[in-house]
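Its record is set out here:
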Amino acid sequence: MKKRRRKNNGVNAGSMADIAFLLLIFFLVATTIAQEKGLKVILPPYYEGEPGKASDRNVLSIRINADNKVMVEGQESRVEDLSDLTYNFIINPLVLSSGSLSPDKAVVSLIHDARTEYQPYLMVYSAIENGNDRIWEEEAQKRHRSSFNLLSVADRNSIRMKYPRRISEADPIDFSLIQ
């Protein structure tokens, strides 16, 4: 009697490995990796000397507490008003005692509670920047009759020198421990 050969019913796994490898490459190329989000801030150059003391009149104090309430110079304020408050403090068009002595010496001090939520903090920071941006835009229109963003780098830098953006940020603190 003759032995019958059985057919090999096995699956060729060589092509499966190729397909798995191609799928892996496809998903690596097609997937976007989430970027960390944050604020774009250009830090000043490192200074090793003793820090200077700014005149209290040249500092606009803004605080955000744990309840996300904004306090400007100790008075509760709305985020929507911060852009105008920052603008008026820096420019001080009416030469008020509550405004800075000079735009190039004005500093906005931002202090927030360690429990402040991220979104309200971003809204406050953005409002402060908008006040500064408004100053730059008005100066660009006055000097060059053009938008600030359309100016040459040299022209933008000359405006930034006259009206520097000075935002001083302290480390988050727990206001409940202070009071």
